[in-house]
Write a structure and sequence with these properties.
The protein is an alpha/beta fold. The chain is built from 9 helices and 23 strands. An 8-stranded parallel sheet has the order 11-9-8-5-4-14-13-12. The longest helix has 28 residues, at 10-37. It is globular, with a radius of gyration of 24 Å. It starts with 9 loop residues before the first helix and ends with a strand.
Length: 490
C-alpha cells in the first residue's frame, strides 16, 4: 500500500508533476521533430570500420550487361568531365524522377504494374525505391513485412534473404526495366536500421550487400543508394558513425561481386559531398534541400573533384517542410525543376505525399504536379543541357537577377533569376520566375544567336529580337509570371 503525501506537499507535488510532464512533452516534441526532419541513427550493436583508411573509390561505370543491345537507356556511368550521368550508349542522361519510396512493401504485383505504367506515360525515367520497409518510410509494418505479410529475411537474419520477398522485388524492378526506368535502390535506408534491418555484426552488413548484388545482378537498371532522411549519429563526422560503417561495408559487399554500378548517399537537407566520410565514397552528388535549391545546387556543381549533381529531393507536391508555409503548388514545383536545370543539375526528382501510398493513391496518379513535371522535362529534351554552365557570377545577366540570398525559406519566397550558358556562347537558358525587366551582356553569346520567350507550362514560344534589355511577356499558361528566355546560335 502506498502512503499518502502530507497535505502541505500536495501543491509542490502537483507542480513537480506538471513540470516533469511538460519536460517529457517537450522532449517528445524534439524527438518527433528530429524523426520528421532527419534520423540520428545508431546501430543496435557497436560496429567498427576496418577499411576506413581505404583510398577514394573511383568513379564507376556499369558492367557489360548494361550494354546489351535493344535495351532503353539507363544510368550507367559518369561523363569524362564528371559533370553529368550517361547511359549505356555513352549519351547524356537527364534524370526525370519520381519518389515511390515504399512501393515494394505497399503494392501488390498488379498495383505495381499500374503505377510503373502510369509513370512511363509521363516520361519518368528514374524511381527512388527502398528495398526494405518500415513504418517511418511508408511501409505497413516496422519489421519490414509487405502489405500481405511477406517478410524480407528468414528468422530476421539479414544474411538470409527470404525468396518470396526478393523474388517479388525483382519482378518490380523488372517492370521498371521494361518501362525504361532506372531505379535508385536503397538496400539500407535510415528508417529501417534497428527495425527491419538489424545486423548482428559489421560482417553481416557486407554479407547482406553481397547477397543483394547477386540477387539483382541480371538487371541493368539499378543505381545503388543509401541514407534517406539521414543524419549520422557521431561527433566525428570524418571517421563515420556505426551506421556509416555498416552502409560502407554493405557497398563493399556489393563491389566484392564485381558489381560496379554507381553509388551515392542521401543525407538530410545537404549534399552527399558535404559529409567528410562520404565525400570520397560517392560517384555523384545527391542534392537534398527544401529551401530554394539554387545555392545548394551551385555549391554541388563546383565541388572538387567534379561529380554530377542531381536535385534528388526537394518539396513534394501537396507537402511543404518549411514551417508555416502553404503546401507546395505547381508553381513551386516548376521553380525547383528550372532552378535545377540552370544551376548545374543533371535532373530532378518529383514527389508527392503518395511516396507512402496513402489510401486512394490510385485516384491521384494523374496529379497536376506530375503533369507540370512532364511539361518541364519536355522543354529540356530539346536542349543540349549537358553543355550548360551556371552563370553564377552574373556575366550573362547583369541586372534584374532578384533575390538570390540563401535562407531557410519557402521556394516562393525567393524570386532568383538563374541562368546558364555554354562556354562557346551558342546556347543560353535563363529562368525568370517572376515578372521583371533584365539586362543581358550579349557579348557573352555568339553574334548570330536568336532569342525567344518560352512558356514553361505550355511550351509556347514567342520569338523576340536581340537587345540588351528584356521584359517578361506577362502571364503564362499556368497563371503566374514565370518564363524562360532561350538564346540559340544558328
Amino acid at each position: 500500500m502506498q502512503s499518502r503525501s502530507p497535505t502541505w506537499r500536495r501543491p509542490l507535488t502537483i507542480m513537480t508533476v506538471c513540470l516533469v510532464t511538460g519536460a517529457i512533452l517537450v522532449g517528445l516534441a524534439v524527438i518527433a521533430f528530429r524523426w520528421q526532419r532527419g534520423h540520428l541513427n545508431a546501430m543496435p550493436i557497436p560496429t567498427a570500420d576496418p577499411a576506413d583508411s581505404a583510398p577514394e573509390w573511383p568513379v564507376r561505370s556499369a558492367g557489360p550487361i548494361s550494354r546489351a543491345p535493344g535495351l532503353p537507356p539507363f544510368i550507367t556511368s559518369v561523363s569524362n568531365d564528371g559533370r553529368y550521368l550517361v547511359d549505356q550508349h555513352g549519351k547524356p542522361f537527364y534524370v526525370r524522377g519520381d519518389s515511390p519510396w515504399s512501393l515494394p512493401v505497399d503494392l501488390t504485383t498488379d498495383e505495381a504494374a499500374i503505377y510503373v505504367s502510369n509513370r512511363q506515360t509521363y516520361g519518368v525515367n528514374a524511381l527512388i525505391i527502398s528495398a526494405l520497409g518500415a513504418t517511418a518510410n511508408g511501409g505497413p509494418h516496422d519489421d519490414g513485412r509487405t502489405v500481405d505479410g511477406i517478410r524480407p529475411f528468414v528468422d530476421k537474419n539479414v544474411t538470409m534473404l527470404e525468396p518470396a520477398y526478393w523474388d517479388r522485388l525483382h519482378s518490380y524492378l523488372t517492370l521498371a526495366r521494361n518501362a525504361g526506368i532506372t531505379v535508385l535502390l536503397y538496400p539500407i535506408d535510415s528508417w529501417v536500421i534497428g527495425h527491419s534491418f538489424i545486423p548482428r555484426n559489421i560482417e553481416q552488413c557486407e554479407q547482406y550487400g553481397k547477397a543483394v548484388a547477386l540477387r539483382f545482378r541480371d538487371l541493368p537498371n539499378i543505381v545503388w543508394m543509401s541514407g534517406g532522411d539521414y543524419i549520422p549519429n557521431t561527433d566525428d563526422v570524418a571517421a563515420g558513425s556505426d551506421a556509416d560503417h555498416c552502409i560502407n561495408q554493405m557497398v563493399r559487399g556489393i563491389r566484392s561481386t564485381g558489381d560496379s554500378r554507381l553509388f551515392s548517399i542521401q543525407l538530410q537537407a545537404s549534399n552527399s559531398t558535404d559529409n567528410a566520410y562520404w565525400a570520397r565514397r560517392v560517384d555523384w552528388n545527391f542534392v537534398y534541400t527544401y529551401p530554394p535549391a539554387f545555392t545548394q545546387l551551385q555549391r554541388a556543381y563546383h565541388t572538387s573533384p567534379q561529380r554530377p549533381a542531381i536535385l534528388g529531393e526537394s518539396n513534394y507536391e501537396g507537402e511543404n517542410n518549411q514551417p508555416e508555409t502553404p503546401p507546395t503548388t505547381t508553381e513551386g514545383l516548376r521553380r525547383q525543376a528550372l532552378w535545377a536545370l540552370t544551376s548545374g543539375s543533371s535532373g530532378n526528382f518529383y514527389g508527392s505525399d503518395d511516396w507512402e501510398f496513402l489510401p486512394g493513391w490510385q485516384d491521384r496518379l494523374d496529379s497536376p504536379g506530375l503533369a507540370e513535371a512532364r511539361s518541364t522535362w519536355s522543354l529540356i529534351e530539346g536542349l543540349e543541357w549537358w553543355r550548360l554552365v551556371p552563370d553564377a557570377d552574373h556575366r550573362l545577366v547583369i541586372s534584374g537577377v532578384g533575390d538570390c540570398s540563401p535562407g531557410d525559406v519557402d521556394v516562393l519566397d525567393r524570386d532568383c533569376l538563374t541562368a546558364a550558358r555554354t562556354a562557346e556562347g551558342d546556347l543560353a537558358v535563363i529562368f525568370v520566375p517572376t515578372a521583371r525587366s533584365l539586362r543581358i551582356d550579349s557579348t557573352q553569346l555568339k553574334p548570330d544567336a536568336t532569342f525567344e520567350w518560352v512558356d514553361p507550362v505550355s511550351g509556347a514560344r514567342q520569338p523576340t529580337g536581340r537587345r540588351s534589355t528584356y521584359t517578361t511577356p506577362g502571364t503564362n499558361a499556368g497563371g503566374d509570371t514565370a518564363w524562360l528566355l532561350i538564346a540559340r546560335s544558328n
